[in-house]
TrEMBL record:
Protein name (database record): Phosphoribosyltransferase family protein
InterPro entries, sorted: PRTase-like, PRTase_dom
CDD domains: PRTases_typeI
Keywords carried by this UniProt record: Glycosyltransferase, Transferase
Domain Phosphoribosyltransferase: 6-183
SUPFAM superfamilies the UniProt entry points to: PRTase-like
Pfam families: Pribosyltran (PF00156)
UniProt entry tagged with the keyword Glycosyltransferase: yes
GO MF: glycosyltransferase activity
Keyword Transferase: yes
Taxonomy of the source species: Bacteria, Pseudomonadati, Pseudomonadota, Gammaproteobacteria, Oceanospirillales
Length: 207
């Protein structure tokens, strides 16, 4: 159990301490992971930016991921997406795409996107249940030519970690229980992070 996201971030920063001095690019998945990314980037003396991906929630059960959509427009669907009507999945995809576009409009004035090409890239999230969102982020970033691609998160089930290990050069996950139910179960404080906090953190040079 973590006290909060910053507690998890401190532990991840210790696990990633070998990157200090190599100017890593820390890419947080908004919004929850951005406070974590700020702390990790500061600890490793790296740069902070965001990677914009969104989970596609199942119709009628938005917390259950049936895929993910990336800012570049690419969509990755899970096998479970076949259970739902194509029209419903398309509507959810378009809704999340619009949200990504709005976020980029809000974030760009304070943090222009940083090119990951040739960089050591650490993708940070608070946790991953199915791996859909993190997998979409890793796939999108891989095509942009990073030197090394690392996935870092607080908690995920073992099968999700195994899946992500096929997409990243390294996966750092603090908690990997078989009885995984939801990311929030590992945090005493799992309050929502608002866009205003994200913008403030992206605009700061130090946390």
């Amino acid at each position: 159990m973590f006290r909060d996201r910053l507690d998890a971030a401190e532990r991840l920063a210790r696990r990633l301490s070998h990157l200090k001095g190599q100017a890593p690019l820390v890419l947080a998945i908004p919004r929850g992971a951005v406070p974590m990314g700020r702390l990790i980037a500061d600890a490793l003396e790296g740069d902070l930016d965001v990677v914009l991906v969104r989970k596609l929630g199942a119709p009628g059960n938005p917390e259950f991921a049936i895929g993910a959509v990336s800012e570049d427009g690419s969509v990755a669907l899970e096998e479970t997406a076949r259970r739902y009507r194509e029209e419903a999945v398309t509507r959810e995809t378009e809704r999340q795409r619009a949200l990504l576009e709005e976020r980029r409009r809000r974030y760009t004035p304070v943090r222009a996107p940083i090119d990951p090409k040739g960089r050591i890239v650490v993708v940070v999230d608070d946790g991953s249940a199915t791996g859909a969102t993190m997998a979409a982020a890793l796939s999108t970033l891989r095509s942009r030519g990073p030197q090394t691609l690392i996935a870092a998160m607080g908690a995920a089930p073992p099968d999700t970690v195994a899946r992500l290990e096929t997409l990243a050069d390294e996966v750092v996950c603090l908690e990997m229980p078989w009885n995984f139910q939801a990311v929030g179960q590992f945090f005493a404080d799992f309050r929502q992070v608002e866009d205003e906090e994200v913008i403030a953190l992206l605009g700061s040079e130090h946390g």
